[in-house]
Amino acid sequence: MNADTLIVRKKQLGKLQKQLGRELAMGKYRDSAKIIELKKEIKNKKLEIGDITKRMIMQIDAE
CA triplet 50, 48, 38: central angle to 5 degrees? Predict the structure, then answer.
């Protein structure tokens, strides 16, 4: 893993969070299923970022 992968994942996370914010701002016209799906995707991205970060730290400690 390298920093480029981490940066890409963080950008993807930011886009998902913006989508969620737009969906939540729609008020009574919002799509509940889409909101739940976006929340799951955000959670998965955060877990992925955490794994990448752990691997990068392990690489540093191994050196």
Answer: 120
